[in-house]
Amino acid sequence: MPSTPQPSFSVDAAVGGSFGFASSVIALPGTPASDACVRIANLGPTHVTVKLGTLPLSVTQSTGLTVLAGDTAFLTIPAGATHVAGVSAGGPSNASTVNIATGT
Length: 104
What we know:
Blueprint: E1 11-19, E2 24-27, E3 37-42, E4 48-53, E5 65-67, E6 72-76, E7 83-88, E8 96-103
Antiparallel strand pairs: 1-8, 2-7, 3-6, 3-8, 4-5, 4-7
């Protein structure tokens, strides 16, 4: 799952959510099959680790891409991917809010 630098990004759709201490899944917004990448903005206080794919899907700190607190990552959407799994590095009561947008 390579991180892809984007000189410009046209949003198809976006959704907000949060990732906590246990791995959870959020559906990619918009039409992921026709979008090239996903932007994940970590608005929370702790870093999150994410992984794109299809259900069932989970991630750990060692199996995904880490997005630091306050940072944004652009990821290429793998063929067929419909969801993003995420987990926060914070303790059980320390979730991180994210904004997930698909586009080109």
